[in-house]
Amino acid sequence: MRVVIAEDAALLREGLTRLLEDRGHAVCAAVTDGESLLTAVAEHQPDVAVVDIRMPPTHTDEGLRAALRMRQDFPGTGVLMFSQYIETSYSAQLLEGGAAGVGYLLKDRVANVAEFAAALQRVAEGGTALDPEVVSQLFRASRQRGGLSTLTPRERQVLALMAEGRSNAGIATELVVSGGAVEKHVASIFGKLGLPPGESDNRRVLAVLRYLGGKPQRQDG
Amino acid sequence: MEQEIRRVAELIVRAPLTRRNWRDLLYCGVGGFAGIAGFWALVLVLLAGLTISASVLGTVVGLLLITVALRFSRRLGALHRRLLKRLLGRQVEAPPPFQPGTGILGRLDKRLRDRPAWRGVWYTLIKLPVAAVQFYSIVLTACGLIDVSFPVIWVLFHNHSGGPQHPLTGFVPIPFGGNIDATSWLGTFPAAVAGVACVVAGAWLARGINAADARLARGLLGPTSMAERVSELERTRALAVDDSAAALRRVERDLHDGAQMRLAALAMNLGMAREKLSDDDATVRELIDAAHRNAVDALADLRDLARGIHPPVLDNGLASALDSLAAISAIPATVTAEIGERPAPAIETIAYFCAAELIANATKHSYANQIKINIFSERAGVLRLEVADDGIGGADQAHGTGLAGLAQRVSTVDGHIDVASPAGGPTKVTVQLPLRAGGDM
Asked: pTM to 2 decimals?
C-alpha cells in the first residue's frame, strides 16, 4: 500500500511513517499542509492519504478542505481524516459524495496499531472506516428524523459496527455471537429499512450511510 | 430676628480676623502667581507648537512642542492640586496617570489625546482671570489695612505741634475708587472706616474666588467625569472579554499542538511496542497494556477538557458549531441559522456555551421531544439566540445555578437573557448579545 501523510506535528508524522513502514507499506511523502498534500498526491498517485484536519496556516479545517478537493480530483485515492475531534459537520461534508474510500478517525485510534492499519487498508481499497464516535453522532442525527426507531437495540449495535466498516465476521467477534446470528440481524436490518441485501461489505456500508444520510438537518440563511 | 442679623453681621465683619482669611489670602497670592506664570509658560509653548506644526516642515517640532506643553500641563495641574490641599485643605483627586502607547507614533498619539492634560490646559486658561481677582482681593486687603491704621499714624507721625501739616491720603482701590484726604485726626476716621470695609470686602472676595477656583480645579484637574469613567470602563471591559476569549483559544491550540499531540504519539509508540512484544513477556506486556490504556484515557480526558475551554469547531463559525451541538444532543434538535455579519470570537463563544448549557438543561429537566435552536441577527449589531423545547416548562432563573451562571456570563458583554417557561411548558429561552463586546445593543 502506498501512502501519503499530511500532518503538521513532526512527532506524529514520523511515528505514523514508522508505523506504516514497519508493516511493509510505502510512505511516498509526509507533508505538513493542505497545499503540499495535493501536490504530493498528484505526484505519487498513492492508494490512500492520511490527513490531519487542523494544519497550517489557519489551523482550523484546511485538512478537510484539501481532502474534499482530493476526493474530486483524485477519486481513486482513499482519504483517511485524522483528528483530535470528531465534528458532525466535518463528517457530513466528507460523506456527502459517498462513503467509498473515506475514513474519519480520532487520533486516539492510532494507539491500536493493528486496527488502525486495518482501517487504513480498508479505505485504500475503497472501503470505509468511521470512528465509533462519528457513527454514534450520525445515528443521533438520523434518529432525529425518525426511522431507526423500528430497530432493536441489538440491530442498532450491528448497524453501528457495519457503519464503522466491519465485516460480518468482525461484527461477530466484537459482539461475541456466531456469524449466523449476525447475518440474521443484518438481513433483518435491511428488511426493516427497505434496503436490498448486498453481497459485498462495501455495498452494505454504502447503503447504511446513504440511509444515515451524512448531512444533518440545517437551514442556512 | 434682630439677634440673627447681629450674628450674621458679626460673622461678616469678623471674617478678616479668622485664620482662614489669612490662608485664603496666602493662597490668593501663591496660587494666583502660579496661575499667571503657568498661563504664560503654557500658552507660549502651546501657541509656538500649534503655529509651527501648521507649517509643513515644522510638523514634527511643533508636535513635540505640543507634547511638551501637555506634559507641562499635567505638572502644573499637580502643582495647583498641591497648593489647594496645603493652603485651603481642599482635596482634589488626581486624574488617572498617563498611559504611554507603544512605538513612537503610539506614544505621540496617546500624548496628544491625553484628556487630563488638555483639561489642564483649559484650567490654566480660565485661571488667568481667576488669578486677577485673587490678586485684587490681596490689593483690597492691603489698602484697607493701611487706611485702618491712619488714626494711629496720625497720632504717631502727624501730631507734632508746629510741623507742617501734610494731609494723609487714604487710597481705596477701584471700583470704589478715589482718595480720602485727612487733614485732622478726626478726618482720618472716614479713611479708617473705608479701610475696614476694604478689609472685610477683601476677605470675602478671597473666600469666594478661592471656592470658585477649587470647584474649577475639581472639575478640570480631577478625575474625568462619571460618564467618561463609565465609557472608559466599558471599553476596558470589552478588551478584557476579548482578551480572555483569545487567551482561551490560545490555550486550546497549545493543548492541541502540545500535550494532545505528544500523548497521541506516546499512545502510538506504546501500541507499536505492544505489537513487537513476544507472548512470553507477560509482565512487561501487562505494564505496557496499562500504560497504553492510561495514555488513551488521558487523551479522551484532555479532549473533553480542551473542548470545554474552546470548542475548535467554533473556528468555522457559530452556525456549524451549533449544528455539531444539535447533532450530539440526546433530544432531537434542529438549528436555524441566519447570521449576517460574523460576531466577535468572544461573542461566538458565549453564544455557543449558552446554547450548550440550554440544550443540556432541556435534556436534564424538560422531558421534551424536540428542541429548536434559532440564531439570527435581530437588527444591526444584535445577535439573538433562541432555544425552545416542547417540554414541561418550569425553568426558573432564580433557581438552579445553570441559568444564573448564563445570565452572569451574558451580562459581561451587556447581553440579556429572557426565560419564558410556564409550568406545563413550553420553554423558550432568548439570549440577546451584541455582535462584539462593548458594542451597542
From this structure: 0.62
